[in-house]
Amino acid sequence: MRLILLLIAVLSVWKLTDATPDPLEHAMGLNYRVFFSQKPLPPGLSKEYYYPMRLRNGSFFVCVLPDVLLEKRSSATLFEANSEVPAQLIQHIHERFKKLCINLLEGWWTYRLCWNEAILQVHLPTVILSDGVLLTTEPQGPQTQFLLGTSPSKDVLTFRYGLDTFGNRYISTNYPNGDVCDLTNAPRETEIRLYCARENEEEKMTLREVEVCRYVVSLTSRHACIQELQQEVTQRTIRCHEIV
């Protein structure tokens, strides 16, 4: 389903020009390439594999989606998703990420993850300077800082292998015991996922709220490139056939 939604978002603004880079390929971590063809649709496929779309120039295409679920199951079998990460490997991860603090700015909020400490959601007030002289600061309003989770001690902190919906490997742990959520009356909690940054892939952090006051932070970093997370990149093809 996420693949279909991504096709809607990306291909709806597609332009058929040779000079235009493939935005879907970029959005899917260089795992997918889209080809437009005038050949007829292949027969015998279930309707679930077809997705219709119209380009800006008015051309109408039907795209054949790859069987991502089948590939994901095969990869999960080899990777042993949901199994625990060995203690010696956890220690190796701690050594790589120690003293790491990373900020993510999203609109009004800044999210700050400090390894083995906590993750905060904070609003940093605007400061206006002129020639190095402070003119004004943004007035403080309601609460502008929330604790989204704290790291357990190293003695009890556990990690598990995981596989996301696109077949990308990660290891994860939980930072529980954040501030109490006013909507659920339960402490906020954040799952931390570590992804290996592929060659030429930007190191980054993303955050999404998967349930009320429950979050997932995805950290893509070369520090996470342990052997278990490295995988061969297989470029898949999405073929779109023109309907005339």
UniProtKB/TrEMBL annotation:
Protein localization: Endoplasmic reticulum
Domain (MRH) ranges: 99-227
Pfam families referenced in this protein's UniProt entry, alphabetically: PRKCSH
PROSITE patterns: MRH
Secretion signal, residue range per the UniProt entry: 1-19
InterPro entries noted in UniProt: Man6P_isomerase_rcpt-bd_dom_sf (IPR009011), MRH_dom (IPR044865), OS-9-like (IPR045149), OS9-like_dom (IPR012913)
Major localization class: endoplasmic reticulum
Record bears the keyword Signal: yes
GO biological process: endoplasmic reticulum unfolded protein response; retrograde protein transport, ER to cytosol
Protein name, entry field: MRH domain-containing protein
Organism, scientific name: Trypanosoma cruzi marinkellei
